[in-house]
Amino acid sequence: xxxxxxxxxxxxxxxxxxxxxxxxxxxxxxxxxxxxxxxxxxxxxxxxxxxxxxxxxxxxxxxxxxxxxxxxxxxxxxxxxxxxxxxxxxxxxxxxxxxxxxxxxxxxxxxxxxxxxxxxxxxxxxxxxxxxxxxxxxxxxxxxxxxxxxxxxxxxxxxxxxxxxxxxxxxxxxxxxxxxxxxxxxxxxxxxxxxxxxxxxxxxxxxxxxxx
Length: 212
Ligand code: TYD
Prior knowledge:
The chain is an alpha/beta fold. The protein has a single domain, classed as Rossmann fold, CATH 3.40.50. Helices cover 53% and strands 12% of the residues. A 5-stranded parallel β-sheet has the order 2-3-1-4-5, with helices on both faces. Bound molecules: thymidine-5'-diphosphate. The site of thymidine-5'-diphosphate (TYD) has 17 residues, from helix 1 and helix 4.
């Protein structure tokens, strides 16, 4: 089962993935956690290129291609092999981030992005996508306050950009309501975790349990 986490920067995805992975393991599942961009040697190299605060000359198209190059690698190297052996994959961001940030945020053509994503992923789509709903301002403030948090080139965008990204997510959710679940990410950490557990419990594949 392939579960992705989406939401504005600082929405708590990383913490919630860690908590969910821990809970799933106590239930006997084999879980792989990973993140985009990154999660592979090549992906981490691309991540450094993308987020270098000095790379101000990077064009939106270059950025899009780099995100999708990292995605092609992680799908091939990590996600598909894990899914093929019945593991649960939890991924911090996936293709929806490209549609939300590069599409709605930077205004790139979403049909073109969709084709590029299809090429990068070979058509792999998540079984479930959890959206951690946090106002963009709250997320950015959390990120700025968080000790040890990376502050990257995209975080340095304007509040208007982050609002456009959020509005984009709302459209993506409305277009595929069966794949998405929205969780209030402004609740205390444990309450968010419980809400996520409730959603995931209802979606776990019954037959695959025999393989755990
Ligand atoms: P990251 O440091 O991983 O933090 P977080 O996910 O907690 O915000 O930053 C990832 C950044 O990359 C984030 O600003 C969203 C952006 N991004 C895109 O613009 N397009 C993409 O396809 C992906 C995967 C991420």
